[in-house]
Amino acid sequence: MGLPSAELPAAIGGGGGRSMPSLPGFLGGKSKYVRMDDVLPQEQGEDGGGGGGVGVRVRRSRSSRRYVFACSVFASLNSVLLGYDVGVMSGCILFIQKDLHITEVQQEVLVGCLSFISLFGSLAGGRTSDAFGRKWTIGLAAIVFQAGAAVMTFAPSFHVLMIGRLLAGVGIGFGVMIAPVYIAEISPAASRGSFTSFPEIFINLGILLGYISNYAFSGLPDHISWRVMLAVGILPSVSIAFALLVIPESPRWLVMQNRTDEARAVLLRVTDSDDEAKERLAEIEAAAAVTSAGKYDDKTVWQELTRPSPVIRRMLITGLGIQCFQQITGIDALVYYSPTIFRNAGITTESQLLVATVAVGFFKTAFIAIAIVLIDRVGRKPLLYISTVGMTACLVVLAATLSMLAHGSVSKSAGIVVAILTVCGDVAFFSVGIGPICWVMSSEIFPLRLRSQAAALGAVMNRVTSGAVAMSFLSVCRAISVSGAFSVFAVISALSVVFVHRFVPETSSKTLEEIELLFGGDGQTRAEVELGDGEQLVHKG
């Protein structure tokens, strides 16, 4: 599709007649949107250091970034729920087994079913967000999860516990799908990667809180401890009611609903200048107009996704593939069953197991914070290489260590230390790369008309592979040993390196409308869009 002209209007604001400054060279020509504080010294030089208008634009730039930051935080609160559930269940399952006397198979079903059930929430979330808006889908996710968490807290039996688990899964499915899409649609291109990574850091924060909850309430009686652990998970969803009063609707969704004036008002809040808001609105309207003009031959969204054109097929391979590899490399096995893995390595007491698990949660959260700092500076693809290669190395070492421990060829104390370090290393490499980037890319590579439901399809792929790993891990370990299971994960992780090299383009600092050209333009157009990648790294260096 053709993009609107990159020429910026000559006048800023309504009057003045002063020309917009040219973009600094270090941007490499990649992004048409530049932070106003970056050009402040140049304008001061032109105006002799005066110019109250410059100060106004700088203040607006900072204000708009703070506003987008706040909206991203509020939109990511549902992700805390997913993370908390993942983290807390690793400890809860120890006490649920004692209290309700559930079997090993029931443990696997209880842990793994959340991922499968959440796929229904993700699929429904795509259609719901297209019909009712991104903002209100976030609220619906919180309501459904609250209901599920309440049922689980007071469950008298395994069957009632499963009912609550199913409700919570649907709510999590809604939340995990909609947050990255919403954030991508309100964020400026230059910082979209960082902001869209927020749901992943909130997932990791939730996991850490879940681990801490396990440790904090583990001293309570068995029939009370796991109920308190699950009840605490309701608290983050309550704050979402306040968030809905603060965050705006997605401007891109508003344009699709022909509510252009409302979209313009939102863009004025999230951009650095009136001219940038006008330009972004023109691009969004152009993308929406292409859809309305019949580019898709009157196909429905799902017809376009199930019988895709070559362009959409390339997008789907990238989006669904990276979601699959994020989970099938075994991260949820490490998170859900870290106490089981550490027990297999030789740690025996429950308190020691939970402390080691908290360490895993800390590493996961700390390194996702590092990823947020680097994702727009270094780029998506370099971080993916670091992540997938590092995970492969850690999984190989972990498999070898567990095998040597099983055969008594390494001392118990040394084996425990290496096992803890490699588990922490694997989650660290995961968190600095493929963990957040899979959600970033799934929310930014698809065209406007398909974005929410294609992102939902990606979330379904993520949850299906997560559930398959979580529900089969104990059985696989029993069949081929724990070290054998992690050897399989290591091979799959090595394949993810090849996938990143072959199918994942660099999307950093490109507008959502430009990214489509990476998949759909001719060779020359794609080369022009990609040209800024190397230039930007040179200038940044």
From TrEMBL:
Instruction: Give TM segment ranges.
Output: 67-97, 109-126, 138-156, 162-183, 195-212, 224-247, 315-337, 353-375, 382-404, 416-442, 480-500
The reply on keyword DNA repair is no
Please give the Pfam families that the UniProt record associates with this protein: Sugar_tr
Q: This protein's superkingdom?
A: Eukaryota
Supply the InterPro entries for this chain: MFS_dom, MFS_sugar_transport-like, Myo-inositol_Transporter, Sugar/inositol_transpt, Sugar_transporter_CS
**Topologically, how does it sit relative to the membrane?**
Multi-pass membrane protein
Query: What positions belong to coiled-coil segments?
Result: none
Q: Which segments constitute the Major facilitator superfamily (MFS) profile domain?
A: 71-508
Q: Which UniProt keywords apply?
A: Membrane, Sugar transport, Symport, Transmembrane, Transmembrane helix, Transport
Q: Does the keyword Cell membrane apply?
A: no
Q: State the Gene Ontology terms under molecular function.
A: symporter activity
Any idea what this protein is called?
A: Major facilitator superfamily (MFS) profile domain-containing protein
Look up and give the organism this protein is from: Zizania palustris
